Amino acid sequence: MPYIIVDNLVKKYGELTAVDHISFTVEKGEIFGLLGPNGAGKSTTLNVITTLTDFDKGEVIIDGMDIRRDKSSIKQLIGMVPQDIAIYDHLNAFENVKFFASLYGLRGNKLIQNSKEALEFVGLSDKMKLQPKKMSGGMKRRLNIACGIAHNPQLIVMDEPTVGVDTQSREHILNSIKLLRDRGATVIYTSHYMQEVEEICDRIAIIDKGKMIACGTEPELVSMVTDVMSVYVETKIPIGFDRDAFCRKIKLMPGIKGIKLEDSVIRVDISIDQNSIERIIQEVINYELPINNIKSEVPNLDTLFLTLTGRELR
After folding, report:
1. Do 270 and 256 touch, CB atoms closer than 8 A?
2. CA 162, 176, 130 angle in degrees (round to 5)?
3. Which domains are delineated in the chain?
4. What is the pLDDT of residue 30?
5. What is the pTM of this model?
6. Averaged confidence pLDDT in the chain
7. Does the pLDDT at position 189 exceed 90?
8. What HEC string does the chain produce?
């Protein structure tokens, strides 16, 4: 039996259906990625799973327990690492972790031991007496994780845990998440960084406009867009360039699945059976953009996301 079962979940806010009959399962000891554009229903789904929000229809089972009947027991299983850093500036690192661990009933030597182990796990054992206001952004993120795992939860929900951190802290956080899985924890993970999802997630679900549109391993998902290829045009986009007008023009061409502009690269996803590359190049020339290099690439998870949702993961 899966560790988590979400079956036909529906959550409405007045006339808005935030979650529309979503179903998925998560296996024990799995890192499960939940992806979607802003407003897709990710946060609402996470809030239901973590017992913070009630729902209108459907069923949610965690470790064999019904989330409505056994809410108190389920709460004890969960560790939450929110996107907004939830720590107290007037407490030092050790005091912060101790406070949050005590909310789960830890006391005495067990509380002290677990708090120290959590700080050691995230690489902050030498910063126990340091207050958050004197920490870097990456250190605060790691402390945020320590506060969420000190009670040794079986289910850890991580919502954008690497936002705004440096490369070294990001690597430390990702390695820590994989270690948590190796220790037996089940992790639900959301991120705006596709590379992170590809690196650590065992399976991935993509939701958009409240609906589940794809779920599976990375190879399974990528296989859904074998009829799409990505074309990369290396250029230099000047200041003041009307990106929206350019994208609208490209999207009017036959076979265009999506377009993404970065500082020096235009990426266009096109149907393989549509010979649109020459038209794309001509449009780049029409907009007087220099062409430094052109290459094509087989589909990846980023291509799939853009193809299915029509939007970037932001």
Report:
1. yes
2. 70
3. 4-221 (3.40.50.300), 227-298 (3.30.70.920)
4. 96
5. 0.76
6. 89
7. yes
8. CCCEEEEEEEEEECCEEEEEEEEEEECCCCEEEEECCCCCCHHHHHHHHCCCCCCCEEEEEECCEECCCCHHHHHHHEEEECCCCCCCCCCCHHHHHHHHHHCCCCCHHHHHHHHHHHHHHCCCHHHCCCCHHHCCHHHHHHHHHHHHHCCCCCEEEEECCCCCCCHHHHHHHHHHHHHHHHCCCEEEEECCCHHHHHHHCCEEEEEECCEEEEEECHHHHHHHHCCEEEEEEECCCCCCCCHHHHHHHHHCCCCEEEEEECCCEEEEEEECCCCCHHHHHHHHHHCCCCCCEEEEECCCHHHHHHHHHCCCCC
How many residues appear in the chain?
314
- How far apart CA 170 and CA 196 sit, in angstroms, is 9
Task: Report d(CA 136, CA 96) in Å as an integer.
Answer: 16
Amino acid at 187: V
pLDDT in tens, 206-226: 888 899 988 999 888 877 777
pLDDT of 314 higher than 60: no
Asked if 46 contacts 190 with a C-beta cutoff of 8 angstroms, the reply is yes
- The answer to whether residues 133 and 164 touch, using CB atoms and an 8 Å cutoff, is no
The three-point CA angle 115-117-122 to 5° equals 100
Tens digits of residue pLDDT in 123-178: 898 999 999 999 988 889 899 999 999 999 999 999 888 887 888 888 888 998 99
The identity of residue 294, as a single letter, is I
Distance (Å, whole) CA 122 – CA 101 = 15
